[in-house]
Amino acid sequence: MKGDKREEQDPSPAQPTQGPMKGDKREEQDPGPAQPTQRPMKGDKRKEQGTDPAPPVPPQPSEEEEALIEFHRSYRELFEFFCNNTTIHGAIRLVCSRHNRMKTAFWAVLWLCTFCMMYWQFGQLFGEYFSYPVSLNINLNSDKLVFPAVTICTLNPYRYTEIKEELEELDRITEQTLFDLYKYNSSGTLAVPARSRRDLGRRGLPHPLLRLPALPPGRRARWAASGMQDNNPQVDRKDWKIGFQLCNQNKSDCFYQTYSSGVDAVREWYRFHYINILARLPDTSRYPGEDTLGNFIFSCRFNQVSCNQANYSHFHHPMYGNCYTFNDKNSSNLWMSSMPGINNGLSVMLRTEQNDFIPLLSTVTGARVMVHGQDEPAFMDDGGFNLRPGIETSISMRKETLERLGGNYGDCTKNGSDVPVENLFRPLKYTQQVCIHSCFQESMVRECGCAYIFYPRPPGVEFCDYRKHDSWGYCYYKLQDAFATDRLGCFTKCRKPCSVTSYQLTAGYSRWPSVTSQDWIFKMLSLQNNYTINNKRNGVAKLNIFFKELKYKTNSESPSVTMVTLLSNLGRQWSLWFGSSVLSVVEMAEFIFDLLVITSVMLLRRFRSRYWSPGRGRRAAWEVASTPASSFPSRFYPHSASPSSSQPDPAPSPASAAPPPAYATLGPCPSLTAKARASASQEP
Amino acid sequence: MAPGEKIKAKIKKTLPVTGPQAPTIKELMQWYCLNTNTHGCRRIVVSRGRLRRLLWIGFTLTAVALIFWQCALLVFSFYTVSVSIKVHFQKLDFPAVTICNINPYKYSEVRHLLADLEQEARGALKTLYGFSEIKSRKRRGAESWSSAWEGTQPKFLNIIPLLAFDQTERATATDFFTGRKRKVSGSIIHKASKVMHIQESKKVVGFQLCSNDTSDCATYTFSSGVNAIQEWYKLHYMNIMAQVPLEKKINMSYSAEELLVTCFFDGVSCDSRNFTLFHHPMHGNCYTFNNKVNETILSTSMGGSQYGLQVILYVNEEEYNPFLVSSTGAKVIVHQQDEYPFIEDVGTEIETAMATSMGMHLTESFKLGKPYSQCTEDGSDVPVKNIYNAAYSLQICLHSCFQAKMVEVCGCAQFSQPLPPAANYCNYQQHPNWMYCYYQLHRAFVQEELGCQSVCREACSFKEWTLTTSLAQWPSVVSEKWLLPVLTWDKGQQISKKLNKTDLAKLLIFYKDLNQRSIMESPANSIEMLLSNFGGQLGLWMSCSVVCVIEIIEVFFIDIFSIIARRQWQKAKEWWARKKAPPCPEAPPSSLGQDNPTLDMDDDPPTFTSALSLPQAPGAQVPGTPPPRYNTLRLERAFSNQLTDTQAFQRHWLKVCFEQDKAYARAELAPIGRCPATLTAVQDEVYPAAFPVHLLEMD
């Protein structure tokens, strides 16, 4: 500690009324002008210049002697040091110029004003930053593009051998129902035996299709309250509707799923039963071997090159039949488009003959195509595009990507791992659609105890079938109602993915094949595919999918206020109003730290001087002499230093009051003290 | 004295150039730290305690590092753009609309050119697939093709034979014309190799293309015979058509009157005079609406299908080329007036017997060019010559680049693109192996080996029309009864037969609304913003400014070097002096170099204060204002003080030092190193004389 050092140089601690600093200084100045001063300011500097070959003054501390950390010995010393060396503008005027009330008040007002202004601005800036504003960037890039995955479905649900009998039974019952309800006889041959087995059939299947009388409004309201599905806008002119009844476990609550149109009702009813039958299908028979690609796709070319075996994968969709996905994640090398245009895309000739397996399930003919990302599941329901037979459909794509900022800037999820819904479509990527379907399936398993057939099932759960879960229909329709009105919370649970790639499709149509070329084309196709073609356009379709342009738009978000700009703005405001810097704050912190240390040291000394014997060598003597000489406040304020102390020795005080010759540090300190002392001496 | 010298002397007098006052670097640093306005530096010097000083050095360096880091971030993010989207509602210019028939030439007109080819195609069909001609074709054929087949020697199949490959044995192929097996040499570049097992038959059809010496051959096979035949036909077709002059081709194709049956624009009738001819190599005559040179661009005053272009097209299916095109309809493309319509690439097909409505929505994009992005304003800085007579676009560049390579590598130009200067279209009379060359080149192009994709850059501004297409059956069953006869009567001059509804197509192109969306990029940062951000950073961390930076440059880059130079010079002088006169003069330079300032700085305050204490009586000082405490004020004074000091003082001091040294020498003490000590005494003499002046100034 400095104090220790000083102690040796200080032969006479005989001036107890003086501040320790003053005493030291005078002591050391007295020997003569040749000796460097021991004033703290001066001392500091001298320490820096420790290597100087100083005049032969013995007690001169060199750099080696400088302590690791030194503290000021009094508040005044600290205070003066701080006043002299601080870099805070304005504030120093307030604290350090206290001799003129007017001036002080003026500075105080100024300081307060600037302080308020600055903090107001700071508040604004922080408020702006922590609202996490984003700015939208639209980038137009042109690049070689990865061709998206393309899924094409036959729209012909396949009839598995395991459930063939049951489906035939269902068909027969449906025909029967149609006859009963609409007096429609689809095929004369089937109708007669069906009618004979009519009662049996109707008994065979639960939830029979019924004709319901139209309800008076009052009653309808009650039904609606009990959860009736009322899917009809008031378009039916007839006074009855058609639907089927669904009940819960103990038949206490029932409702009718009704439809205004008989077509809808029959289809929905058929679909419902078809799902149940499908559920009985064992897992092993998912892919019927005989349904090969060749029966559906006549030719396939990409970039003028024929498709490869490795380019496609197959799955079977219960509603849309055989689906072939080209260029999906599993294909060996992904297709790239380096040129836009119809010649640089996928070109497929399809067979769209209706095999009439299940006429009630699929009422459309053609094929269904969907363009999706490589690692996204193909939701043919959600994003499909129907192809018409006999038509060449040219679909031009335009890619568009959307990148959201996650984290604080927006509500989106990077990979879905932080969404409370398990992705049942793994290992496919998280999309919002995937999440919503998974969420629905989750609720389905939770509420109804079985899994909906069109979505993947969680492990250990079986698909819904009314033979095992007799009230699942009731449960399902209830759930779907809840789902549609978002009472399940799926839409809030499922967050948007942070990056979305979408393809905008535009279609153009032309007749294919043309009259002049259809002869040889049909002939050719029929020859190479070994099936008899009946020269009808309805049996074939052509599809071209290509990029319209290689430009793609990227909508991305970026934080509009970054940390750097925030700091710059803060610095600007700070400089403008206050003129200080972060280092000034560190200075303040150092000042406070010093203040605390000095306070504690002084308290310690006072404590020691009071309770310890004062005669413990020179050290104790000095301590007693130097520290408790005056009270803290008196030492803190220069003018309250005892006037008697300054009077007795006039010689050093003018010396200290003299402005320094060259060094900035020297200037304010002595003059201040001198002036203070002078003013103090005048007061009495 | 010469005036030049006079001025020189005056300048020398008024603007004296002196080096830094501080004699050593350490001094300089100290002086800098004490006097600079940059926060932190001063604390390094004034702090007490090594740890404290070290901490302050650490803080200061951290602040400097932070400033540099943040400023680097600012600089790197300088070239960012901000995007503004504006939606205007205004009267919009109608775009140019180009309409083509899918079939390029009337088959009846070109038949005489293609008769041989057709025969051979049919012959190939028969041999490959074993089915005979269909009756309808026979009726139209000038002679029975089969009989002609027997007699003539096929020329097309000789040039590029169609081959049937056996899936099992790869190396052999059956030339279906001669019937004999032939060895397929060279690499088989399969357009389909590991084909999916589409067909039950194991036969794969393809053709072989060879370079000049038949050693290097490529065989192209196709998964479907339809594709093989079409591709093969197209190759020969291009060969034949390449030799036909343009005027003849235009005549063989459809005229505007033929293609356009009716035309309405903005509720006003229009006709073929509003359309300009544009000949496309693969689509024949195309007609562009609203592309008249030297005429005002038409615009629509209202949105909606009523106010757009409404045409009925006559697409004569009977005149279709059976092998070249397999679909029926027309193609339409919406583009800018000066843009080239890439009808084969991005055209939208229109179906016959249908009314196709296309709603447009205009989006304009403006990008910022260099250095913000790689786009080009007009393509003049792209090293590819634009062979199209149209404004630059990425696609034009790609096609031009490919065509240039084609001419360079194969010696002739590809048929479906415009002709570069001093080049001919390829045909196998002149360039027998161009097809092989073309296929190789095209493969290389698609795989981006030609470098076209990297050379071509996108255009900076473009307009695009987003189309929404909807279809409706047209004409309806009830209206067709009167519509068709009327249209037939309209077209009475050109055609003799009654119109069929599958020969007609209706097209409506209109603005959905007159909203135009403009996406504009503008620089997100300007130089002022960057500077003010720099200022913010400098101010935040160190309260520094540009002046501080200049100060740093002055101190660290000028003064330091001048100090070093001075010291070196002095050393050299000393060495020289020692060499010349060894005993005495070696002392002064060394002491001057090192010790003078120390003394100057260290010892002057006590002497100074003591000197001051003499004239200043305590009483006189009381009401006086305190000395100015502005660092800057004192700074300058300190400088001039020191400067005059060091200058005036040195001479004086040297003398004293010499004397002292001599005295020491007399006392047999080491003279070196004594000078500093003696200097205190010297200073005592010097300072009082030197300083009071400044003192007065200060007070």
UniProtKB/TrEMBL annotation, chain B:
Protein name: Epithelial sodium channel subunit gamma
InterPro entries: ENaC, ENaC_chordates, ENaC_CS
Sequence similarity: Belongs to the amiloride-sensitive sodium channel (TC 1.A.6) family. SCNN1G subfamily.
Single Gene Ontology BP annotation: intracellular sodium ion homeostasis
Catalytic activity: Na(+)(in) = Na(+)(out)
TM regions (residue ranges): 54-79
Gene Ontology molecular functions: ligand-gated sodium channel activity; WW domain binding
Record region (Disordered): 580-627
Membrane topology: Multi-pass membrane protein
Top-level lineage group: Eukaryota
Main location: membrane
Keywords, ordered alphabetically: Cell membrane, Disulfide bond, Ion channel, Ion transport, Membrane, Sodium, Sodium channel, Sodium transport, Transmembrane, Transmembrane helix, Transport
Protein's organism: Tupaia chinensis (Chinese tree shrew)
Keyword Cell wall biogenesis/degradation tagged: no
Function as written in the Swiss-Prot or TrEMBL entry: This is one of the three pore-forming subunits of the heterotrimeric epithelial sodium channel (ENaC), a critical regulator of sodium balance and fluid homeostasis. ENaC operates in epithelial tissues, where it mediates the electrodiffusion of sodium ions from extracellular fluid through the apical membrane of cells, with water following osmotically. It plays a key role in maintaining sodium homeostasis through electrogenic sodium reabsorption in the kidneys. Additionally, ENaC is essential for airway surface liquid homeostasis, which is crucial for proper mucus clearance.
GO cellular component: apical plasma membrane; sodium channel complex
Subcellular location: Apical cell membrane
Classification via Pfam families: ASC
